[in-house]
């Protein structure tokens, strides 16, 4: 027997090189492997005779090899191997392209099980590149429901499948965390059954049931964790703030707050004066003015003798916040400071000394704020900006630096209300659904490849006017299979052949953090004309001088994500544009993208996304910054998640879990899911 924590390198066929590839999929242990769920299935259970085979309808059939495979060398890089097979009903020619080695394994006179589809019918039956195996071997690639796994370059589905099968044979699947009563009530498979069935289902129904179990389970763990955090916090008493005069701050603003901002500020004020700890999420579209809401919260904290901290996901963003906020608050007597990782050691030490001595009222910074070296003397409010780059864990880490700390989380990802309640079960939610007056919408266009010359001319025109341009690509490296534009290759093409006279920069998620910061910094200082990037620029880049956003293969992104990307332009005074490029001709896809051209309301777009793509997208780690949801991509409905939440909240409230084996297993899973955040749960 093996354990779930054993490294996958213990499996047959997985050496250091393969292990590295698995690592790219975040798979290190047998447990990780068992939680690497198929993204779909191919039903290869249907057996037919050769004469029953249909064009474009793959099926399995048994047939005997009628001759020795013959290979013709067509031209450089193209070999074609042909072989005849037959059963009692008909004869069929199989064609293998560049698969001589595979095809040569077919032995004259022997019978095999094949899986494939007929293509074309012009010259009789014809089949290209079928898979096959011996009828005596246990079903591997034929006669079964085949799991189709998420992969990475160099790793085939077969390799993953074999590794998973070995792991299933060697160790027990993860422990049961759902009490039987709940499983029965909601019709949920037991853990053991489900972990086997999801990788090797006997029927498509069983696969569905297994998927439902995984979604239910994962969401149950997540939502039980949130329920615990919520109950931990609502039981903490705290002195209400008494000094709640916002006038000096409001009078110092060069504008009046929108009514949505006002509402959020009031909600915050009432939390802070309520006698328990605030834990509030402010959701507002890009540009809805969240910074001022944060300023108001910080103001109230400082007026009541607390220190406040604002944590931003990048140095650039921290610097920007600091510039805005210190300009506003310093004249009002609030002592502000900026603390980031790139300060000199001496400066950092001095700042930390002043924070600990209580000589700074409001600290703005990055992760540096949460490191162990930073101490506050009376931290009372923690604000995190762009929630979806911060884990629940980091939020908890910062809150631990003070006693009974109020937290305010700001997110620029509009999320439909129903979903927000599921995702942020531990938070109260304020919504900024209004933009400050006078904000101009970003003109958005959907175009095909034929517009390329015009797009290039437009980029050139913006650059000539001294503006900057973002070009977003879905992939980092060239991916032939999907024909996606890769950021790296596209940046090179643009620089070398299209815009040799412009300064083209490249930014992608696989770069080191410091390198990313350096490039973003340089671009925001105007040291580049065109920034080719992956979605890493989704958050945290504020370049008011950028007026054009080109999004390649736009159909590959969710609407909310496109909207988020689009929010990177239109931040200055100049008219701004967004061009969505797509070769996709699917009417539904086009309708989706056109919806984006027609509206700039993030909440409306999010609702649309939820309707069209389901909730999985919102939980993808990319957008949510929540713990990694393994089952998020399984394509499940809201209903299952709601049921899991309902069940978990009841289970936690009943406190029965404390006594039960499943409850203990659940606690371990919660701790692992929120890794680092355990201390806030009791
Ligand atoms: P968010 O963080 O929500 O994307 P910001 O707080 O950065 O938005 O605000 C965007 C811009 O709008 C800033 O330049 C800010 O000064 C301005 N702004 C904020 N609130 C108002 C308001 N009520 N009226 C006019 N301008 C505002
Ligand atoms: Mg902001």
Q: In words, what does this structure look like?
A:
- This protein is globular.
- Residues 676-682 have low confidence and may be disordered.
- 38% of the residues lie in helices and 17% in strands.
- The protein is an alpha/beta fold.
- Strands 2, 3, 4, 5, 6, 7 and 8 form a seven-stranded mixed sheet that branches. A seven-stranded parallel sheet has the order 12-13-11-14-15-10-16, with helices on both faces. Strands 17-22-21-18-20-19 form a six-stranded parallel sheet, sandwiched between helices.
- Bound molecules: adenosine-5'-diphosphate and magnesium ion.
- The site of magnesium ion (MG) has 3 residues, from helix 10.
Descriptive keywords:
single chain, 682 residues, alpha/beta, 7-stranded mixed β-sheet, 7-stranded parallel β-sheet, 24 helices, 17% strand, globular, disordered C terminus, binds adenosine-5'-diphosphate, binds magnesium ion
Give the arrangement of secondary structure elements.
Blueprint: H1 16-24, H2 30-34, E1 40-44, E2 59-65, E3 70-75, E4 78-86, E5 91-97, H3 100-103, E6 111-116, E7 126-128, E8 131-133, E9 144-148, H4 157-170, H5 180-186, H6 191-199, H7 204-234, H8 247-252, H9 259-272, E10 279-284, H10 290-303, E11 307-311, H11 315-329, E12 336-339, H12 345-356, E13 362-365, E14 379-385, H13 392-399, E15 406-411, H14 417-423, E16 428-432, E17 443-447, H15 452-464, E18 468-472, H16 487-498, E19 504-507, H17 513-524, E20 530-533, E21 546-551, H18 559-566, E22 577-581, H19 587-598, H20 602-613, H21 616-619, H22 621-624, H23 638-654, H24 661-673
Helix pairs in contact: 6-7, 7-23, 7-24, 9-10, 18-20
The chain binds adenosine-5'-diphosphate and magnesium ion.
The site of adenosine-5'-diphosphate has 14 residues, from helix 10.
